[in-house]
Amino acid sequence: MSKLALKNWIPDQLREKNGLYTCKWLFTNGNQFTGPFFSESIGEYLSHAYNSNKFKPCSDISVLPEWASLMSSVAPTAFIFHISRCGSTLISQSLCLNSQHIVLPEVPFIDEILRLGKNLPVPHHEELVKAVIKIYGQNPDGEKKHLIIKTDSWHIHFMPLLRKLYPEVPFVLLYRKPDEVVRSHQKLRGMQAVPGVVPNELLGIKNGDVEPGDFDGHTVKVLENYFKAFIRASQEDPLTLLLNYNDGIMENMGRFCSFTNISLSAEDWEHINVRSRFNAKHPNQVFYEVQPEEKIPLYQKQAFEYYHQLENLRKTQITTA
């Protein structure tokens, strides 16, 4: 296998048969992952002749570390962790506006490889995680400067593993008031807000903690565990930055760039300002949101206690920066 043969190919769709894991390969034709959702970017590539061919290139995943070693790639600049519905999509979309950035928004194959750690010997699994991220961050022409990885929300619980693999990479932790997150999921629920879609063990929930039909109770329990993980990380890890959705995109982007040493031009900032006026997940829709003033439900009390702990930690970060 050569560098030229691998150029613009990425692994996709993990498959298992008789304990052996393979993946299909997808040709990107050098295009960026600019959609709010990774699936949108992938959808644009499927019509290419290499991807629409009846015979799809596949490989055993054991070759990924060796093949990744042949690639010229951008090392990760930052990981974005988030509790969902808290501005992470708008930040990743803002970073996409600069063509020198590679932004990976919740890549399904990275999620599959992270989850696979429960079935593989640890050293092999760690090699695979690093290999997949390197392949997705490939930079064959040397034009890219930064690689930003926006994780799925439940990857909060993979922070210890990712810190072990990337000890010097900044972790940015985005969060928001629990009631606002719950209201957002009540309108359109994400995977982690529907009991049983994401396994409880990945969400830090013990079986029996929440009634199966209690969607809001499940969502709040998920948020409690996310907040607790953020509190631990921000207390123990000096390379973490806390950002609150309610500070607004321009302030949060300023702190994000300062913390990660990403320099943006005046033109970049103007583009971000324009982009911020539109819905993060639906770029053609003007953004409008009003949060009702409601009494906090009792079942959210613990989540709010964790939220206020995070707020105190965030304010300490700002005053000591």
Number of separate domains: 1
Task: Tell me what portion of residues adopts beta-strand conformation.
Answer: 5-15%
Q: Which structural class should the secondary elements be placed in? A: alpha/beta
For this structure, the CATH topology is Rossmann fold
| Stretches with pLDDT under 50, minimum 5 residues | none
> Roughly how much helix do the residues carry, as a percent range?
40-55%
What integer is the average pLDDT? Answer: 91
Q: What is the CATH H-level superfamily?
A: P-loop containing nucleotide triphosphate hydrolases
Instruction: Give the tally of β-strands.
Output: 8
- The span between the termini is 47 Å
Task: Tell the overall outline.
Answer: globular
Looking across the biggest beta sheet, what order are the strands in?
5-6-4-7-8
The CATH class turns out to be Alpha Beta
Q: Any idea what the radius of gyration is?
A: 20 Å
How many alpha or pi helices? 14
Going by CATH, the architecture would be 3-Layer(aba) Sandwich
Q: Give the topology string: H per helix, E per strand.
A: HEEHHEHEHEHHEHEHHHEHHH
Multimerization state: single chain
Largest sheet: 5 strands, parallel
Structural features, described:
This protein is an alpha/beta fold and 321 residues long. The chain has a single domain (74-320), classed as P-loop containing nucleotide triphosphate hydrolases (Rossmann fold), CATH 3.40.50. The chain is built from 14 helices and eight strands. The strands form two sheets. Strands 5-6-4-7-8 form a five-stranded parallel sheet, with helices on both faces. Strands 1-2-3 form a three-stranded antiparallel sheet. Strand 1 (9-17) and strand 2 (20-27) form a beta hairpin. Helix 9 (178-187) packs across helix 11 (215-236) and helix 11 (215-236) runs parallel beside helix 14 (301-320). It starts with a helix and ends with a helix.
